[in-house]
Amino acid sequence: MKTFKFYGLLLAFFSASIISCQKNAQPMSSEDEDLQTCAGYGGGGFTGGGGNNGGGSATNSGGGSTGSAITNEQNIIPGNMNFCNPKTVSLCTQQGSVGSVTVRRGFDNKIYVTYSLAANFFLADVRVYTGTSTGIPMSTGRVNLCDFPFRKTFSLPFNVTEYTFVLRDEPGTFSVAAYASVVKVVNHVVRQVSEAWGDGCNGTQITSVGSNNSYDNNNLFDCKGANWATRFDYVSGPCVTVAPASEPEGLCSKAIPCFFGINPNYGTEVAWTDESVMVGGHSYTEAEARAIANAPDVNGVCPDSKYALMRVATLKLSHTDWESSPTLNVNVTTLENYLSTCGKISPSHMPTGNAAARTAAVIVNTWIDDHNCPDRR
């Protein structure tokens, strides 16, 4: 436990030649995620690996931590979940922002803490403390990362750009200390490994007023956070239930296989009536899009970018007025923004590892399944 920082740094640099930059990303062995298939109906939900070392239920090892976590709930955002009181701060190294940390309360009364990284940065380790500002684990004036109660370490290849902790039993107001070890990869080579903190660009610096513990007399060099580590406060009132907006009458979409497989109405492939489709700021011809759809998945797991592209393209090729739908508008916009950061998708370039995009794509998939247009042959 005491060597996680040194080990992570050395492992990243010695393994630089085999780290991928979101290209045909392999599934994380520590995630063990069961994702939906690319073209199937009823995409359903997904599961994620545990958020703590050692498996089992997450517990409060930090002296002043207030919440708790269940391992099999980590990195899962239910497709029908609504949120209130979001707060987003920059995730910063000493060189500047590398992403963001968002804290929000779900209508299930759980707290969702989401790390999101900028292009070329990937997560190697994330650790979160929530509770009183004076309860943050400390050792001889420095943050003791080994005692942070909620943590997740990723394995090679580093390809995860977003991760969400799901916490229970949190009060309405608490402090957050959000740490990350981030890896910068350029042209498949590790260029930088840095320590980052939520609100690290201009947040409140964590001082020695935090709680000390039994490790204080040991050599904790590898457990100590940076001397500029920061925290921020989160305030959340109760979420107020709002009746869901109604869908426009008659709004529908053709089924996904109509454009990416065997048209279920004809029993054969049917050529597109449009020459191309624009998704995420990139134009795709029918040949290009079908090649992506037919590209083999990695260990049976459909990459997020491929899954998202097929669903957004299906809506556009169906000429569905998705902007008029309260369900589609927000989720398709999320997918368009995500895909615009990926570059043009191809069979050899299918980024993955974005939980927010995956969640939005599942919602869109369910909508398409529930709103199939009638056959007008």
Could you walk me through the main structural features you see in this protein, from its secondary elements to its overall organization?
- The structure is a single chain.
- This protein is an alpha+beta fold.
- Helices cover 18% and strands 25% of the residues.
- The protein has 6 helices and 14 strands.
- It has helices at 4-14, 257-260, 286-294, 304-317, 326-340, 355-370, and strands spanning 83-93, 96-106, 111-117, 121-131, 138-139, 142-143, 150-153, 162-167, 173-186, 189-198, 204-205, 230-235, 276-279, 282-285.
- Strands 1, 2, 3, 4, 7, 8, 9, 10, 11 and 12 form a 10-stranded antiparallel β-sheet that branches. It has a two-stranded antiparallel ribbon with strand order 5-6.
- The longest helix has 16 residues, at 355-370.
- The protein is globular and about 70 Å long.
Our measurement of the CA-to-CA distance between the termini, rounded to an integer number of angstroms, reads 64 Å
From the spread of the alpha carbons, the general shape counts as globular
Q: Report the portion of residues in β strands.
A: 15-25%
Q: What is the radius of gyration?
A: 22 Å
> How many DSSP-defined strands?
14
With helices defined by DSSP (H or I, 4 residues minimum), what is the helix count? 6
